[in-house]
Amino acid sequence: ELKVEQNPLFxxxxxxxxxxxxxxxxxTSDRLYWYRQDPGKSLxxxxxxxxxxxxxxEGRLMxxxxxxxxxxxxxxTAAVHDLSATYFCAVVSNFGNEKLTFGTGTRLTxxx
Amino acid sequence: DAxxxxxxxxxxxxxxxxxxxxxxxxxxHDTVSWYQQALxxxxxxxxxxxxxxxxxxxxxxxxxxxxxxxxxSSELNVNALLLGDSALxxxxxxxxxxxxxxTFGSGTRLTVV
Lengths: 112, 113
What we know:
By secondary structure, chain A is mainly beta. Chain A contains no helices and eleven strands.
């Protein structure tokens, strides 16, 4: 069974600092997604990573995928308050199914 | 271009009752998946519908059932509600083929009392 783990679960950081969220998964996959969720809201798609070595950037967020290590990272550069949210990674396994298996989520709080 | 529409947005039910949640997929999408998100947790896959059939199912009891209509919209039914069914229910639509995007609706917040 595919398992997806994120760390840290909680992250409190100051504005202007850099940090990385890690997403590990347990079986072969070449499709990984990052989502943002604000309290009480739905999931907003941030990145779709489709191959080994994929790197995508949007504003202060950059995501990468290493399929050999079964690891994805979400890097935050010079954090600002409006990045405060919960971030989820989700993986689709390579075995003919289309379901997303989500990580536990990282609750990010940016402190002024 | 309308995204994924879910209704109702909030719902309060009593234990033992039955509930139906509805989802209209994004235009051009033909596959609908349902997820349950308990408070403080990541979404859990319930099932997926394509061509009006359940294509895949997660680890949820038979009390959870669904349907997809010819216009690709979908319903999630939950019978014999338990307190533990209280959660945010999310619908995600996608398109078959080499398109890897999933669009999520705003969800239905179900509270069982």
